[in-house]
User: Which sequence fits this backbone?
């Protein structure tokens, strides 16, 4: 599973599980720590979310929100479609022999962080008129997965799908290799570098050396780019990156099994690994045992600031517990006969932690339960397991997360592109005080308050504003509104709501 290194942290994931990790990884600056912590909280998105919330409140005062929300499907989703075709003036890829050189990429992080890296690698190659060599995956991340690109993604499809945009090759041709005087130059671009940086700092070296490798490549390209390059990002992320046949087959099989039991289901992505919890500095209700266990893990990061668990919680910086996710779903109106698919890695406290969620929703499934022995060949490979969960979460009717990591963001964006499929992100800041006061109110009041907290966090089309948030999460350049006449009736309703992207 994707450890979800926050977009602002430059370093490795919280490499805490194993004591022998190099000190350089463990010793991060306080900034790094804060960056990582932010992944629980959606600092990046919170500004927008609050403004939406305010809008929603205002519009509610005006009577706009009186109708009940369909929790399984947005009423407005069919007004939009994913649009990532290139415009008429987007020129064709520069052929290999005329390109400015070969761009090698080493990605970084878990599966979804690397996905971002691959997506942006294609765009950087385009900016540089370079020939891209199929990116190398990270074998040394927290997840210790030695899968290569070809083990996870359909490489021939990747190359051919993008052939008009960027020339991609599997390796630098031998002839070129032999003619090079020195091995490829290696460098690392700063986070979120602009196209101007690549043209000014990287291109001259590429031209001089003919081959250049960019390392630790994940969030190395600016969020905001011109519209055509944003659309290219979408073509890579949503079309060119297709999992290999064995992964697709087992993923689809799990989806089919879910659908054989129920016509619609909820997928929950739970991040609840001990490391993540320790890192958050939050308290999850497990008493002295939890305090000492998480405290011990926390000591492995020597530079973590002292945090007051209560404060972190009220700031919305703690991922929801499985129980809290269940309470939120019940309160939103999902019946106890709903089917859940739970995507997760190791869960702190195991069965005992999951029990309250299972009591709320007895139809509880995960890949281990559904796939049985078919899962065996994938077990040694964390990224392939993450890919299987990605497929089921992508296909689910409703997708819910307890965190704001890379997988949560990437899937939230993808589901918007694929027709605004219902995606629920907990508004942790508001929910935390509500959970605390839960026993002081009756069930109906609690439910009403949860519903009101979650307005603006339900994956509705109007939650998106062009240029706001991470492009991965809000791919506004790639979502278009359908011509009006087709949607006359729904459109009239929509006109009473806050403005939407066009
Ligand atoms: C890339 O190629 C196009 C078309 O040949 C050219 O107009 C553009 O200036 C080139 N850019 C770079 C960075 O080489
Ligand atoms: C599920 O909910 C129904 C009513 O909403 C209730 O009667 C039933 O006891 C619940 N079942 C379980 C297993 O909690
Ligand atoms: C919907 O159609 C009706 C009549 O067909 C028309 O009067 C109305 O203006 C249309 N509304 C929108 C928003 O296009």
Assistant:
């Amino acid at each position: 599973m994707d450890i979800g290194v926050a977009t602002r942290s430059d370093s490795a994931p919280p490499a805490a599980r194993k004591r022998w990790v190099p000190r350089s990884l463990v010793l991060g600056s306080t900034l790094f720590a804060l960056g990582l912590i932010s992944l629980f909280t959606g600092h990046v998105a919170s500004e927008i979310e609050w403004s939406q919330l305010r809008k929603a409140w205002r519009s509610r005062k005006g009577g706009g929100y009186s109708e009940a929300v369909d929790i399984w499907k947005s009423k407005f989703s069919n007004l939009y479609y994913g649009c990532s075709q290139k415009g008429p003036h987007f020129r064709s890829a520069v052929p290999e022999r005329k390109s400015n050189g070969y761009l090698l990429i080493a990605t970084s992080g878990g599966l979804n962080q690397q996905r971002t890296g691959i997506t942006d690698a294609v765009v950087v190659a385009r900016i540089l008129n370079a020939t891209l060599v199929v990116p190398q995956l990270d074998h040394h991340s927290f997840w210790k997965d030695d899968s290569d690109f070809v083990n996870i993604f359909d490489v021939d499809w990747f190359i051919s799908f993008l052939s008009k945009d960027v020339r991609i090759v599997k390796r630098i041709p031998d002839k070129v290799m032999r003619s090079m005087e020195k091995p490829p130059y290696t460098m690392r671009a700063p986070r979120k570098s602009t196209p101007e940086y690549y043209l000014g700092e990287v291109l001259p070296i590429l031209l001089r050396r003919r081959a250049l490798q960019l390392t630790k490549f994940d969030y190395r390209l600016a969020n905001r780019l011109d519209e055509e390059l944003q659309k290219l990002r979408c073509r890579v992320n949503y079309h060119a990156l297709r999992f290999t046949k064995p992964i697709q087959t087992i993923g689809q099989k799990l989806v089919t099994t879910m659908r054989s039991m129920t016509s619609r289901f909820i997928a929950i992505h739970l991040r609840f690994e001990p490391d993540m919890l320790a890192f958050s500095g939050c308290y999850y209700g497990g008493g002295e045992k939890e305090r000492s266990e998480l405290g011990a893990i926390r000591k492995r990061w020597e530079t973590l600031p002292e945090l007051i668990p209560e404060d972190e919680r009220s700031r919305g910086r703690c991922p929801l517990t499985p129980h809290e996710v269940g309470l939120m779903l019940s309160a939103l109106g999902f019946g106890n006969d709903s089917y859940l698919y739970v995507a997760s890695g190791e869960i702190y406290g195991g069965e005992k932690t999951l029990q309250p969620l299972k009591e709320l929703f007895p139809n509880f499934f995960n890949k281990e339960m559904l796939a049985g022995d078919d899962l065996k060949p994938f077990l040694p490979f964390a990224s392939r397991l993450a890919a299987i969960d990605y497929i089921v979460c992508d296909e689910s009717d409703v997708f819910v997360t307890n965190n704001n990591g890379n997988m949560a963001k990437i899937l939230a964006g993808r589901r918007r592109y694929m027709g605004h499929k219902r995606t629920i992100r907990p508004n942790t800041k508001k929910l935390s005080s509500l959970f605390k006061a839960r026993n002081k109110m009756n069930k109906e009041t609690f439910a009403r308050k949860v519903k009101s907290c979650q307005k603006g966090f339900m994956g509705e089309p109007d939650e998106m504003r062009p240029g706001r948030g991470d492009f991965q999460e809000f791919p506004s350049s790639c979502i278009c509104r359908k011509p009006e006449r087709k949607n006359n009736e729904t459109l009239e309703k929509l006109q009473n709501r806050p403005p939407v992207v066009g």
Q: What stands out?
A: Residues 23-80+248-270+321-345+358-494 form one domain.
